[in-house]
Amino acid sequence: MGKAENSRIALPVGSNLDRFIMRNQEGFPFASGELSQLIRDLAYAGKVVNREINRAGLADITGAYGAENVQGEAQQNLDVAADIRFTRALKKGGEVAAIISEEVEDVIDLNNPRAKYIVAIDPLDGSSNIDVNVSVGTIFSIYRRVSPMGSPVIKEDVLQPGKEQVAAGYILYGSSTMFVYTTGKGVNGFTYEPSLGEYILSHQDMKIPKSGSIYSVNEGASASFPKEVKDYIASCKERGYSARYIGSLVADFHRNVLKGGIYIYPSTEKAPNGKLRLMYECNALAFIAEEAGGKATDGSKRIMEIQPTSLHQRVPFFVGSKEMVKEASTL
Ligand code: AHM
Ligand code: MG
Question: Does 264 have pLDDT greater than 80?
Fold first, then answer.
């Protein structure tokens, strides 16, 4: 869709998310509204999770749940709660054939015969930050299933490369809660207004500055970073860049989108493929980064070109301002 058409369907800052989604659907002559409903379902579940996160300091619902997730990490109560909220909302909505979640080992087939979408989700990323009152996030990708509707979901439905995403987004539970998403026609951000219970368009057609002066990486592990990454960090220091690392991917990414910067989670000795998951974290943020004019690689390849081979696959991740990611991606 050209720029002129794109702006024809744009709504002014201050519009609410539902109206925005509806207006954008009018831009697709044959859209049946299922994708719109699916995005609304995710946004609604985000409101419920937001309410629970905000109560976390009061209610006795924080702390390890006693179980470990499939990555072998202790699960927090709210990881589990968020996973349940999103799964329930998507199941009820009826547009989703299957979910893959960072919190669940296998594909969740929702047995919905009329559904044509697949959702990949990290229901609560950075959840170890909840107990210390630091921002956390939800990250999601939406794909169209490749097998016929009504048949059981197959491996090819859920293991699609990021370039097949039809929509992606994140919810940042921070000093404000924000819903940021793309359907491949730019990126828009909505701030949650709790007294109205609505997400309001606050960041229209978001663009990442081409370059910036912030680098976000866990330097505590730098002794085991690849030489190229060490060199890049050294050059950031020589140029007097600022180091900013919250340890909550959505928050670090969001800040860099607004201000210009790079987020790096490289391979390390302990984690030769990095830590972040291609399907639940990297693909969605790569799609948003590119739609906002930025870039995302694994150090050499474009993230969205990587053909996944397993649900919980990890990849090194370089994302943010185009010029910075280009310079850092020299592996
Ligand atoms: P999680 O999915 O278990 O929450 O881990 C992902 C988080 C990211 O939000 C964050 O950027 C990264 O892990 C921090 O890892 P580290 O503590 O190794 O720097
Ligand atoms: Mg995560």
Answer: yes
Per-chain mean pLDDT for the chain: 91
Pocket test for ligand 1, best of 69, 132, 249, 278 (most atoms within 8 A of CB): 249
CB-defined site of ligand 1, < 6 Å: 73, 122, 125-127, 218, 247-249, 252, 275
Distance 126 CA to ligand 1 centre (A): 5
To the nearest whole percent, how much of the chain has pLDDT over 90? 78
Domains of the chain plus CATH, in order, are 17-203 (3.30.540.10), 214-328 (3.40.190.80)
* Bridging pattern class, strands 117-125 and 136-144: antiparallel
Closest CA to 157 of 190, 219, 110, 224: 110
Query: In the chain, what's the furthest Cα-to-Cα distance?
Result: 58
Cβ–Cβ < 8 Å for 90, 98: no
What is the number of the ligand 1 atom nearest to the C-alpha of 124? 4
pTM of the model: 0.92
- Write out 119-178 in H/E/C secondary structure: EEEEEEECHHHHHHCCCEEEEEEEEECCCCCCCCCCHHHHCCCHHHCCEEEEEEECCCEE
